[in-house]
Design brief:
The protein is mainly α and 128 residues long. Helix content is 80%, strand content 0%. It is built from four helices and no strands. The longest helix has 35 residues, at 93-127. 6% of the residues are buried.
Length: 128
Amino acid sequence: MGELTKSFKKEEVYYFTKEVSKLLDLLNGTTIVCNDKKRTFTIENQMNKIENLLYKYEPTIYEEYSLKTKYAYNNMIKARKEYDRVIANKCYKETIEEYKVAYETSIKEYERLKEYRNKLKSSLIIEG
């Protein structure tokens, strides 16, 4: 995560909500010992407010798969560039074959995630 700017990427917000959710899970079940009952109530109340806010910013399953598809697409492009580089450098046949297999695997992964994402989208449109 980079420096704080005026705008946030979705991925950063999703990462932040995941980390806050982990913190709240760690705090659940712990005993807060405090001399001031009001302070204990305030802490518990604040934890409930944060839990409710998290629901607003957590990614939907469609958004999660959109991000996974985006990453798979970038990996596929990167694998294609590596495969092209190996061919251009006229490497050994075994090396070329290895990069070809890696590229084909990345294509299959991208297609699989894309298909699943599209099924999610179509089912959400029908329901929504």
